[in-house]
Amino acid sequence: MSTQFDHDLKNTDGIIFDLDGTLWDSSAQIAQAWNELLSTRPDIVREDITRQDLYENMGLPMYDIAANLFPNEDAAVRNALMDDMGIYENEFLLKTGGFLFPGIRDVICAAAKKAPVFIVSNCQSGYIEAFIKAHGFTGVFKDYTCWGDTGNGKSDNISLICKRNSLKRPVYIGDTASDSKACKAAGVPFVYAAYGFGNTDDYVQKADNPSNIKVILDL
Predict the structure, then answer these.
(1) Does the model's pTM come out above 0.85?
(2) By the 8 A CB rule, do 25 and 99 touch?
(3) Across the chain, how many H-helices and E-strands are there?
C-alpha cells in the first residue's frame, strides 16, 4: 500500500513535474528526428510519424509507444528501433530544444525558490538531461528519474523520488489521466496541467495555464 502524503499544497516540501505536456512540447522536434532516422531504415515500412501520432502516445513508456507505432514489427525489432530513435532524439533535442509552454520558465524558477524541484517522466534515459541542458536548467532540479533509468512505471518512480529525497509533503504536476493514476498509486496529490496533452477529471487542483500553478502552490 502506498504512503498517503499531506495534501497541503502551499506548504509542499517537494514539487515534482512531469515533462511532456507539462513543461514543454517537443513533438515537432521528435517527429523530425524520428523521421530522419527512419529514412535510413528501408526495412521499416510506415508513413512519416506526425505530431498527432506523438500526441496520441504521450505519457506511455517508450516500448508501448513502439508497439503502437510499429504494430507489424516483432517486439525485439521495434524495441531496438525505439532505443535507436531515443538516442538520436536526445542528440537532436540537445541542439534544438523544444517549445517551453509560455510562462513555464518563471514557474520552475519560482518553484525552485520555494522547495526542491524534480522531474519524473516515462521517457528514455537522457531525455530529461536534454531538456535541462538545452533550456539552461542545469543545477535547478534537485533530482529526476524516468522509465529508461529504472525500468519502472511512473508511480514507482514518483515513490522513488519521494523516498530518495525524504519528501513528506510532495506534489506532482502532470497532464494526463495516467499521471493522475500514478499519483493515486503513489499517494501523492496531483495537480492537473489542463493546458497539456491529456484529459482527466481526477485531480486535487487544476491549472488551466502555467501561471495558475504559481497560485495553486503559492509561489
Answers:
(1) yes
(2) yes
(3) 10, 8
Cα distance between residue 190 and residue 24, in whole Å: 18
The SS3 of residue 24 is strand
For residues 120 and 13, give the distance between their C-alpha atoms in angstroms, rounded to a whole number: 16
120 φ/ψ angles, rounded to the nearest 5 degrees: -130, 125
Confidence of residue 62 (pLDDT cuts 50, 70, 90): confident
Selection from 212, 180, 175, 210 nearest residue 194 by Cα: 175
Q: How confident is the model at residue 45 (pLDDT cuts 50, 70, 90)?
A: confident
From residue 19, alpha-carbon distances to 1, 8, 99, 197, 204 in Å are: 26, 23, 11, 11, 19
Give the integer Cα–Cα distance in Å for 59 and 119: 13
* Residue 54 near residue 46 (C-beta atoms within 8 A): no
Task: Give the dihedral sign, CA 47/49/55/59.
Answer: positive
Cβ contact 148:128 at 8 Å: no
Q: Which fold has domain 9-25+100-216?
A: Rossmann fold (3.40.50)
Q: In which residue are the cell numbers 497541503 written?
A: 8
Domain ranges, ordered by start, for the chain: 9-25+100-216, 27-96
